[in-house]
Amino acid sequence: VQLQASGGGLVQPGGSLRLSCTASGTIFSIYRGAWYRQAPGNQRELVAAITETDSTNYADSVKGRFTISRDSAVNTLYLQMNSLKAEDTAVYYCNLQGTGIKDFVSWGQGTLVTVSS
Question: Which residues contact 45 (CB under 8 A, 6 or more apart)?
C-alpha cells in the first residue's frame, strides 16, 4: 500500500492548511490513521491519530487547532490545521495501518509545512 501526501506549503501565522493522504493498492480496512511531524533537529512526534471507530487523539500542542478525519470511501486521511503557529513548522508524515492482501503499515513521503510571516 502506497501513500501520497499533499497540502503542505507556506502560510502566515494564524492561517490554515489542510493536508491530505491518499492510499493506493488493495485495502480491505484501515485500523488506524495518524499524522506525525518532524522539525529540524527534533524527533518525529505524533500529531493526531484516528481509529476505525473514529476515536481520535491529539498532541497537547495542537488540541483545539487541528482536526484529523478520514474518508474510507476514498481511502484518504486529512489533517485540518487552523491557527497555525511558527512552531508548527515541520515535515508532516501520514501513517496508515490496516489490512489488504496482507496487514500493512505504510508511511507517506512527507509534506513540508512552513509557518512564517
Answer: 36, 37, 38, 59
